[in-house]
TrEMBL record:
Domain Carboxymuconolactone decarboxylase-like: 27-105
Protein name (database record): Carboxymuconolactone decarboxylase family protein
A Pfam family: CMD
One term of GO molecular function: peroxiredoxin activity
Coiled coil: none
Species name: Arthrospiribacter ruber
InterPro entries in the record: CMD-like (IPR003779)
Endpoints of the signal sequence: none
Amino acid sequence: MNLIEEFNNYRGQMNEKIMASDNKVIKRFFNLDTNTYAEGAIDVKSKEMIGLACSMVLRCDDCVKYHLGKCFEAGLNKKEVFEVFSIATVIGGSIVIPHLRRAVEYWELLEKEGSKDV
């Protein structure tokens, strides 16, 4: 199993367990998150780029992987994603660099896996 499958499987399994708790606050928060990234006055692609930059600055590797996957689905290309990386690095500073490395690795896997679908 590769890094993408591992991440998505784990995330899915844990989200199921979390939702099974039937906690109203957690369910509402998850719903809020889902609706925040839906098409609106700002398109999905732009929202995912914002989410990716914020996740990098906040140094949340799981969030970075999630938003990279969504950026890939939204059709970002390598040049666009590296511009987002540059914004996040400028805002967050050198502490973002380890997360940048892992983000580049994950993006390359997404590109590799995506090319298999063609």
